[in-house]
C-alpha cells in the first residue's frame, strides 16, 4: 500500500479507505482536514455552493462509531465526498446553479445520494455548476464561476466545474457529476482529474434535476482511475424508481482498474475526433498516450465514424427540446422562487409564472428553452427534433460498426485546454464546440471516461484523454484508463496533480480571484 | 347572486334537424380505480384531505421520475379489448406541454400518436321509434393512457369560478391518477337521434367499464367525464345516405363538464340548436371549448381553440416503451366479462321480459340489481316490479341513479328478495308488501321487521274468510247469480267487498277460490 501523506487531503480515496479500515485515521479527522482545506482555499476557487460542516462531521462520527463496533462497512465508508448541486439532497440546499431554486431544500434524496449515504461517505457539500447544467465553464452559474486550480483565471470546465475544481484543489478526494454532453469528462480534462460517464441507465437518474432526460447520466469523479472506479461501484446499479435504469449488475469496474491491462486489446482512434480544430498540445499529448498504449501491448487502428460530424447539431436540438419541457415545472407554484409582476394589482397564476421565469432563469437557460420550444413546435418538429433523432440513430450505428472492429475507441476529450474566464461567454457556438468530442457518447448512450494525458507544451495546461466503450462494458474504460495512467505516472515520476501550483490561502492578501466569502 | 349567462339564440330542435345533419365526436375520460397512481405509489382514494396523497413524483419536484403502473396498463388493455380494439404491440408515452397551475410538471404525460388501443367499436341499443331497439355501431378511434391533473379551487368569488375569485388553492391528490381517454370517430348517420345515441353510448360504455371492474365510473364524482364535440353540416338527404355522408364536416365545438347521462343528451341537443341559430344568421361557428351548465341547461364560451394549438408533443424520455406481449394480451382477453350486449340478450331470455320491459330495466339502470335479486331467490317478474317501482321513482326524485340511491340507503337485492319471499309465502299480499316497502325505504328496518312492527300479516284463518264470503254472497244475490251463470268476471266485485270486510288482511286469491267454489 502507498504511504499515507501527512496532508490527508493529498491522498487518494483508495489509500484513505485502507487507512480508515485499519483505523490508522478516523473519518472525523479526515473530514475535518477537508473542511479545513475548504476553509483555506475555496475563497479563491469557489467550487462549493454550500458546505455542510455539521452534517459531514456527524456522518463521519457515525461511521467511526460503526467501525468501532466492528460493523461490516463498505469500501469507501468514511471517505468524504462532494456532491454536484444537481442532485437532490434531503435537508441540504439544492440550487442546480440557478436563482430559481435558491433556498429550496429537497424533502428527499436522489438515489445516488441515498447510495452514498448508505455506503457511509460523509457529504462535504454541494458543488458549483452551470445553471441547470447548461454550459462548459461554470460561467453560467447564477452564483458566479468556479476557478481552475491550475490557473485561477481559467475555466474549470462545465457544467461540473465545481466537482472538477474541488478535486484538483484537494477539497475532496471524490465528487459526483452528471454528464449530458460532456459535463463530467470535459471538466476532468481541463483540471487533470478523472471522470466517467457510465452507460446510459447504469446509474439512477432519480433525484437529478433533469436537463435532457435521454442524455443525462450521473457518474463518478476522482483523481485516479481506481478512485473513480470505487465510486462508480457505489453509485451504479438498478433503481426501480428510474424506468430507464438497466436491471443488471454494475460492470466489474474496480477489478478492471486493478487489472490495468491492455494486452491484446484492440483500440480504435476515431478519425473524426481529432486533427483540425484541435489544439497542437492536445494532439501531441493524445498521440503520446496512444503510443504508450501500443507499448503496453494494445493494437491500435484508425476507425471512422462518419456521422459524428452531425452530432453537435443533433445534440443542440434534442437537448433544448427535452430541457424546454423538463424546465417547465419551475413555475413558482409549489417551490423555489416566486416573483410577482410589477405594476399588476391582482396577478394571475400565468402572470406570476411568467415574471418568475423571466427573473429566475439566466440567459443561457432562456436561450435553450426558446430553442427547444421552437424545435418541438408543430410544423418544425419533423425538420428539427425528428431529424435530430434520425442522426442519433446513425451515430449509434457508427458506434455499433466501430465496436464491431475494436474493443474501445479513444480521442482527445476536448479540443482545447482550459480557456480564460469570459473568453467564450459571448459566443455560444464557440462554447458549444468544446463538447464536440464528448457528445457522441451521450447520443448513443455508451460509456466514456476522461483521464489526464499530460500538459500541453504551449500553455502548460492539462489535456484530457477520452476512452469510449460499448454499452454496459464500462469496465473496459477502467482497464485501459488504469493501464495508461500507470504508464503516464511512471513517465511523469508521480501523479500529474503533484505539479499543480499552490493556491492562495484564505487571508492571503491580493488574491484577485477570490470570490464571495 | 346567481350566475347569469348571456343567452345565445337557439333554433327549435326539430327545425334545426330539418336543415342540418349533426355529427358528434365523444371523448370520455375514465379514472381507473387502481390502488396507486399512474406513475407513483400514492393512493388514489376519492375525497381525502387535500394534498395528503402526494409525493415528489406527482408533485413534479425537481429530479423525480415516473414509473408506469403495470396494473393501469393491464386495465387499459382490457378496456381496449372490450371495445374490440387492436392492442399496440409497442407504444410510447408522450409529453403534452402546456402551462397550468394544477398540472405539476406543466406537461401531461399522455399518449399521442401511439395509443395503447385503436380501431374498435361499441354497439349500442337505441330506440327504433316503434317500441323496439336498434343497434347503432359507435366506432372507436383510440383509447390511450394518461394522468389526471390536480384540482383548482377558486376562493372568494361568488360563483366558485376563477372569475371574481381573490385566490385559488390547488389540491394535487388527483394529480397522477390514471386516466384512460376513449375517443370515438366522428359519429355520423344518427340524424335527429344524435343526442340519444350519445347518451346510449356513454351509458353502454359505463356499463362496460363497470363490468370490467376498472373504474368507479361515477360521473358525479368525476371518475367518468365526457367531452362532446358537435358540428353541423347541411342536410342533403337521409342521415345515412351516401349523398349526406359525402358532405364535408362543419366547424366543431367541444363541450366540457358534461357530467351526467342526462346532460350528455341535453348538452348535445342544446349545441345543435345553438349551432343552427348561428349558421342561420349567416355567421360561422367558432372553434372553441364550451362549458355546460347543468342548472341553466345552456353552454357558454370557454377557451378559443384553433388548429394552431400547439402542445409540442414528443416521446416521454423518462419512460421506456410499453410493449405488451401476445401472451399477456391473450391472458387479459381471457379475463374479459361477457360482452354487455350478449349479456343483455341472455338475461332477457332468462327472465322472460319483453323488449320494452328489458329497455325499461336498462334505462333505469336496474339490470345488475335485478340479476342479484333473482340470484337471491326472487322471481324475475317480482324483481323487476319492485326495483322499477317506488325505488326508481325516488331515485328520479333525488336526481340520482338507482344504484347510487339504493346503495345510499342500504337497500339491497337481498332486501327485495326478502320482500318477495314474504309475498310468495303468503304472509303478505301485494298492497301489504307495498306498505312494507315504504317502511323499508323510510329506513324503518328490513321487510320482515317492518311487517312485524306494522302487524301486517294475511289472516290465515279460513273460517273468518269463509264467514266473510258467506256474508258478502248473501248480501249480493244478483251478483252471485251471475257468477253461478258462468260470468266469472263478476267475482271481482265480491272479492273487493270480502277484502274490505277483512280490512285488507286476507289473501284475495283465496277469497276468489272460495267464492267460485260456493257458487259454481
CATH homologous superfamily name of the largest domain in chain A? Amidase signature (AS) domain
The description of the largest β-sheet of chain A is: 8 strands, mixed
Spatial extent as radius of gyration of chain B: 29 Å
Strand content of chain A: 5-15%
- Largest beta sheet of chain A: what is the strand line-up? 4-6-5-10-11-9-7-8
The biggest chain-chain interface is: A-B, 45 and 31 residues
In total, the number of domains of chain A comes to: 2
- Helix-strand string of chain A: HHEHEHEHEHEEHHEHEHHHHEHHEEH
**What is the CATH architecture descriptor of the largest domain in chain A?**
Alpha-Beta Complex
**Helical segment count of chain A:** 16
User: How many β-strand runs of chain A?
Assistant: 11
Strand content of chain B: 15-25%
Uncertain runs of chain B: none
Whole-number total of structural domains of chain B: 3
Question: How confident is the prediction overall: mean pLDDT of chain B?
Answer: 91
Structural class of chain A: alpha/beta
How would you describe this structure to a colleague?
The complex is a heterodimer of chains A (517) and B (520). Chain A contains 16 helices and 11 strands. Chain A is α/β, with parallel strands linked by helices and 517 residues long. Chain A has 2 domains: 9-309 and 392-499, Amidase signature (AS) domain (Amidase signature (AS) enzymes, Alpha-Beta Complex); 310-390, no CATH class. The relative contact order of chain A is 0.14. In chain A, the strands form 2 sheets. Chain A has an 8-stranded mixed sheet with strand order 4-6-5-10-11-9-7-8, with helices on both faces. In chain A, strands 1-3-2 form a 3-stranded mixed sheet. Mean pLDDT of chain A is 95; it is low at 508-517. Chain B is α+β, with helices and mostly antiparallel strands. Chain B has 3 domains: 13-308 and 320-332, no CATH class; 338-454, no CATH class; 462-519, Arc Repressor Mutant, subunit A (Orthogonal Bundle). At the A-B interface, helix 10 and helix 11 of A face loops of B.
Amino acid at each position: 500500500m502507498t504511504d499515507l501523506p501527512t496532508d490527508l487531503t493529498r491522498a487518494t480515496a483508495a489509500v484513505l479507505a485502507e487507512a480508515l479500515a485499519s483505523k490508522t485515521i478516523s473519518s472525523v479527522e479526515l473530514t475535518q482536514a477537508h473542511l479545513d482545506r475548504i476553509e483555506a482555499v475555496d475563497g479563491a476557487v469557489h467550487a462549493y455552493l454550500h458546505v455542510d460542516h455539521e452534517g459531514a462531521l456527524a456522518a463521519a462520527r457515525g461511521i467511526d462509531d460503526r467501525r468501532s463496533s466492528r460493523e461490516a462497512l463498505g469500501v469507501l465508508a468514511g471517505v468524504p465526498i462532494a456532491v454536484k448541486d444537481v442532485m437532490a439532497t434531503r435537508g441540504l440546499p439544492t440550487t442546480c446553479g440557478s436563482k430559481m431554486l435558491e433556498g429550496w431544500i429537497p424533502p428527499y434524496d436522489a438515489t445516488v445520494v441515498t447510495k452514498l449515504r448508505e455506503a457511509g461517505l460523509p457529504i462535504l457539500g454541494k458543488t458549483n455548476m452551470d445553471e441547470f447544467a447548461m454550459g462548459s465553464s461554470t460561467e453560467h452559474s447564477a452564483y458566479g464561476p468556479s476557478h481552475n486550480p491550475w490557473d485561477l483565471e481559467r475555466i474549470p470546465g462545465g457544467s461540473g466545474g465545481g466537482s472538477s475544481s474541488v478535486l484538483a484543489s484537494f477539497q475532496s478526494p471524490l465528487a459526483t457529476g452528471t454528464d449530458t454532453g460532456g459535463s463530467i469528462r470535459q471538466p476532468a480534462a481541463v483540471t487533470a482529474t478523472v471522470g466517467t460517464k457510465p452507460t446510459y441507465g447504469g446509474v439512477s437518474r432519480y433525484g437529478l434535476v433533469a436537463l435532457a432526460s435521454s442524455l443525462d447520466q450521473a457518474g463518478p469523479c476522482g483523481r485516479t482511475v481506481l478512485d473513480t472506479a470505487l465510486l462508480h461501484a457505489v453509485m451504479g446499479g438498478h433503481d426501480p424508481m428510474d424506468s430507464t435504469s438497466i436491471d443488471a449488475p454494475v460492470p466489474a469496474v474496480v477489478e478492471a482498474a486493478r487489472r490495468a491491462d491492455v494486452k491484446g486489446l484492440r483500440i480504435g482512434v476515431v478519425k473524426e475526433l481529432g486533427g483540425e480544430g484541435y489544439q497542437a498540445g492536445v494532439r501531441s499529448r493524445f498521440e503520446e498516450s496512444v503510443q504508450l498504449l501500443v507499448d503496453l501491448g494494445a493494437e491500435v487502428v484508425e476507425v471512422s465514424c462518419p456521422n459524428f460530424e452531425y452530432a453537435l447539431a443533433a445534440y443542440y436540438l434534442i437537448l433544448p427540446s427535452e430541457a424546454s419541457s423538463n424546465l417547465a415545472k419551475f413555475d413558482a407554484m409549489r417551490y423555489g422562487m416566486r416573483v410577482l409582476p410589477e405594476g399588476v394589482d391582482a396577478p394571475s397564476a400565468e402572470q406570476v409564472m411568467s415574471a418568475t421565469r423571466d427573473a429566475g432563469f439566466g440567459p443561457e437557460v432562456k436561450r435553450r428553452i426558446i430553442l427547444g420550444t421552437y424545435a418541438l413546435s408543430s410544423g418544425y418538429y419533423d425538420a428539427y427534433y425528428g431529424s435530430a433523432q434520425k442522426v442519433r440513430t446513425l451515430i449509434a450505428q457508427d458506434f455499433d460498426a466501430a465496436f464491431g472492429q475494436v474493443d474501445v475507441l479513444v480521442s482527445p476529450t476536448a479540443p482545447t485546454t482550459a480557456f480564460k474566464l469570459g473568453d467564450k461567454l459571448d459566443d455560444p457556438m464557440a462554447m458549444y464546440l468544446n463538447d464536440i468530442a464528448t457528445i457522441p457518447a451521450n447520443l448513443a448512450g455508451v460509456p466514456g471516461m476522461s483521464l489526464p494525458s499530460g500538459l500541453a507544451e504551449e500553455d502548460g495546461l492539462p489535456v484530457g484523454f477520452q476512452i469510449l466503450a460499448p454499452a454496459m462494458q464500462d469496465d473496459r474504460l477502467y482497464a485501459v484508463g488504469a493501464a495508461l495512467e500507470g504508464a503516464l505516472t511512471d513517465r511523469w515520476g508521480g501523479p500529474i496533480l503533484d505539479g499543480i501550483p499552490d493556491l492562495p490561502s484564505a487571508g492571503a492578501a491580493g488574491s484577485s480571484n477570490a470570490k464571495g466569502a | 347572486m346567481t350566475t347569469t349567462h348571456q343567452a345565445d339564440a337557439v333554433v327549435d330542435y326539430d327545425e334545426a334537424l330539418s336543415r342540418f345533419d349533426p355529427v358528434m365526436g365523444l371523448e370520455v375520460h375514465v379514472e381507473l380505480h387502481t390502488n396507486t397512481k399512474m406513475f407513483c405509489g400514492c393512493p388514489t382514494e376519492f375525497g381525502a384531505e387535500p394534498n395528503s396523497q402526494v409525493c415528489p413524483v406527482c408533485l413534479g419536484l425537481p429530479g423525480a421520475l415516473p414509473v408506469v403502473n403495470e396494473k393501469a396498463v393491464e386495465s387499459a388493455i382490457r378496456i381496449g379489448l372490450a371495445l374490440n380494439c387492436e392492442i399496440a404491440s409497442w407504444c410510447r408515452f408522450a409529453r403534452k406541454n402546456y402551462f397550468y397551475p394544477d398540472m405539476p410538471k406543466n406537461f401531461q404525460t399522455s399518449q399521442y400518436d401511439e395509443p395503447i388501443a385503436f380501431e374498435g367499436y361499441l354497439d349500442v341499443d337505441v330506440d327504433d321509434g316503434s317500441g323496439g331497439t336498434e343497434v347503432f355501431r359507435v366506432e372507436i378511434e383510440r383509447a390511450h393512457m394518461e394522468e389526471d391533473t390536480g384540482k383548482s379551487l377558486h376562493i372568494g368569488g361568488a360563483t366558485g369560478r376563477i372569475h371574481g375569485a381573490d385566490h385559488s388553492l390547488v389540491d394535487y391528490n388527483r394529480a397522477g391518477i390514471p386516466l384512460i381517454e376513449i375517443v370515438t370517430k366522428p359519429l355520423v348517420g344518427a340524424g335527429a337521434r344524435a343526442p340519444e345515441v350519445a347518451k346510449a353510448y356513454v351509458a353502454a360504455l359505463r356499463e362496460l367499464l363497470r363490468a370490467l371492474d376498472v373504474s368507479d365510473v361515477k360521473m358525479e364524482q368525476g371518475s367518468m367525464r365526457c367531452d362532446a364535440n358537435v358540428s353541423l353540416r347541411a342536410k342533403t338527404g337521409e342521415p345515412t345516405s351516401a349523398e349526406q355522408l359525402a358532405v364535408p364536416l362543419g366547424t366543431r365545438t367541444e363541450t366540457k363538464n358534461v357530467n351526467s347521462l342526462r346532460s350528455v343528451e341535453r348538452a348535445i341537443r342544446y349545441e345543435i340548436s345553438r349551432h343552427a341559430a348561428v349558421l342561420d344568421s349567416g355567421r360561422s361557428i367558432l372553434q372553441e371549448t364550451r362549458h355546460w351548465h347543468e342548472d341553466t341547461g345552456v353552454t357558454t364560451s370557454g377557451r378559443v381553440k384553433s388548429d394552431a394549438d400547439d402542445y409540442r408533443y414528443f416521446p416521454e424520455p423518462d419512460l421506456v416503451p410499453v410493449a405488451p406481449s401476445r401472451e399477456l394480451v391473450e391472458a387479459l382477453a381471457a379475463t374479459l366479462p361477457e360482452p354487455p350486449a350478449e349479456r343483455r340478450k341472455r338475461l332477457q331470455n332468462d327472465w322472460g321480459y319483453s323488449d320494452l320491459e328489458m329497455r325499461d330495466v336498462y334505462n333505469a339502470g336496474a339490470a345488475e340489481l335485478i340479476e342479484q335479486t333473482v340470484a337471491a331467490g326472487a322471481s324475475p317478474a317480482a324483481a323487476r316490479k319492485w326495483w322499477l317501482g317506488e325505488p326508481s321513482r325516488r331515485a328520479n326524485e333525488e336526481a340520482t341513479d338507482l344504484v347510487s340511491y339504493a346503495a345510499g340507503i342500504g337497500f339491497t337485492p337481498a332486501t327485495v328478495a326478502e320482500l318477495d319471499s314474504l309475498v310468495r309465502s303468503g304472509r303478505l299480499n301485494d298492497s301489504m308488501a307495498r306498505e312494507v316497502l315504504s317502511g323499508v325505504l323510510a329506513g324503518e328496518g328490513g321487510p320482515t321487521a317492518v311487517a312485524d312492527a306494522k302487524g301486517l300479516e294475511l289472516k290465515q284463518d279460513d273460517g273468518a274468510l269463509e264467514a266473510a264470503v258467506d256474508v258478502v254472497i248473501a248480501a249480493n244475490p244478483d251478483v252471485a247469480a251471475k257468477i253461478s251463470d258462468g260470468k266469472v268476471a263478476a267475482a271481482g266485485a265480491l272479492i273487493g267487498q270480502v277484502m274490505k270486510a277483512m280490512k285488507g288482511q286476507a289473501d284475495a286469491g283465496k277469497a276468489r277460490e272460495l267464492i267460485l267454489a260456493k257458487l259454481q
